[in-house]
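Quick question: what would this complex look like in 3D?
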Amino acid sequence: MTYPPILQTPGGEGPQIWDPHTLPVNDNVNPYCFSVNLNGAYYLQKGKMIAYYGEMRFSGIGRGVLDRVLEQNFNSPLHASDWVVAEGRGTLLLADRAYDLNSYDLEDGNLTVRSGNLLAFEPTLRLKQSIIPGFLTLIGTGKFVAASNGPVHFVEPPVRVDPQALVGWADCPAPCHHYDHSYLHGVLGGIRHLTGIGGASGEEHQFEFIGAGQVLMQSSETVLAEKSVGVVGEQSAVPHQQPTQAAPGLGNLRDLGRQFGL
Amino acid sequence: MAFTLINHKMVSAQVFPGRRILSQRGAMLGYTGEVTFRPNLMGGQGGVMSMIGRRVANEDTPLMTVEGHGTVMFGHGGHHVHVIDLAGDTLYVEADRLLAFEDSLQQSTMFMGQQGGLMGVVRGQVTGQGLFTTQLSGKGAVAVMAHGGVVELPISPGLPVHVDPQAYVAHRGQVTNKLSSALGWRDMIGRGSGEAFQLELSGHGMVYVQASEVKL
Amino acid sequence: MCRFRTSSARPSPHIGARADTFRNVAQFRLQGSKVLAVDLAGDTVKARNGSMVAYTGQMGFKKLTGGGDGLRGMVTRRLTGERMEVMEVRGQGTCYFADKATEINLVRLNGETLFVESDNLLCTEATLRTGTSFTGLNGMAGGNGLFTTKVEGQGWAAVTSNGPAVILRVTQGLPLRVDPGAYIAHTGNLNRALKSGAGWTTLIGEGGGEAMQVEFTGEGLVYVQPSERLTFGGDA
């Protein structure tokens, strides 16, 4: 039985309608949504539940309520307050900013992931803080779900990665810093130092991975540097408001400071 | 083609002696092999003063010369990446939309104010993109960024395309552009529909429009 | 040591669902998954203000100031203080709409009612009526309610979702709870109730709306998006 009207979601083959019996078991519903078959407990980052069937309760972590349970899983006090534990039975749907989601099965392994990108994990895994700031390490056997801005791209070392583009790494040793000295020094480096032209771009500093393992990459997190879009909005499109800008060569004077790195 | 799509938000490019890539700074995500990144103060052509002039004119895209021997991955801010292959023709693109392009392409800056007279000048203010547009011509590939991917709309004689300046990404072909207004002046002031200004592109060619009215 | 599983197949990006080819009125189709193309032959559609990205032919745009056929419901919806504004588009040609790179879902109404979060309603045919429905929470201040736009009549509507929508079926005995920030629309014979999330009490006061869930019971379909409005930066 269907319930008209049904929205035609983009994609072609016609809309797929899910219920607790047809939803995937611990797998992706689509690239951006993950379905957890809850029977017991699951840890998830706050605010990542989008819907659920069944009976379950969500409790905050790091508030003294469940501390005894948590000692087994959380060895990462800094991040504990960002997490909730879901307990009960049912089907739980997770999503995060329409980012791509992937699940990872660890078998007596370890994987380190950017803390903001870790969405959920089974209680069989232990969570610790990585020695690299902003990263968490999962140790043991079990499944976890992580998000990435665009699909995850797996690369094998040796590779140098922009810190912004790093999602995490598995099995290989923790990365070291790599600085491009020809970039930092010399004539061009001097000009850059004096004028700010060229700026610090990230190209002069990377994380370097060596050894055997996998490096997980995404498109970078940062947005473009803020640019002046002028004052002309949809309501105030009055052309004569900033007549000086029309003079070629003068441009937007307010931007000068930023552009020269001041 | 120099660029290979890894996914809709990342591309990779091989560099080797004889193929260099110019990329926007901050666009490199990672690389393997021996690759160096050199800030390109010349901005391609024209010398340092020209570069500074362009910066003042708000067309500031400090470029990096990427050379050596290896594979380099590019992407930025989670924006969709679209690769455009040029076979001798010219692409007009806002500088901050450029992710990376082959060194084999000729780069220049066009003063958009000349097109469309006064309204052309206004255009720079409306789009917030300055009065200068980067022009790439020759043979080679260009990777551009767009919020939510791009739609290609053909422009043919008698069938001009009107584009929201915020959603405009790039265009190619024999195309003239001017700023048009769908409304009277009274409507534009105070109670517009948000569509007060449009870029009108006419001639013969293609315009790339992103699936968002959010300017990068 | 580690086994990786990548996501299931991604929907192919350029399949457009051609909508309604037999009526000589506005035709809705998708250009990719994030751009709506509407072919107009002198008729009218209503669209979210500022959502036009391109057009061919002759088009006129007029901001609607509320009133009239229930549009005031959309215009005056006040939950967070931002204003949802609507424009009327009339002309000959093809008009392209998009909204912050969100996915577009098409729906054809034949007299049924569609409930949709008003932020997610992109475009409707002029033949459709829109109004507002409200679900409150007992004992809660007005700000804790859920305003939803009601679309009724005959015609096409386009609904956006940040990421492809997931369609969930609700039947008797199988209620569904959703995060209000992920809810986009529902159809069918459903009852809605705002619930404070059991066990979330430790989190109340932290904001972010996490303490609230919407419970759906009855028979129908609920559409959720794989993201939450409150964490979606562009949706101010």
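Answer marked as accepted. Chain C has one domain: 27-231.
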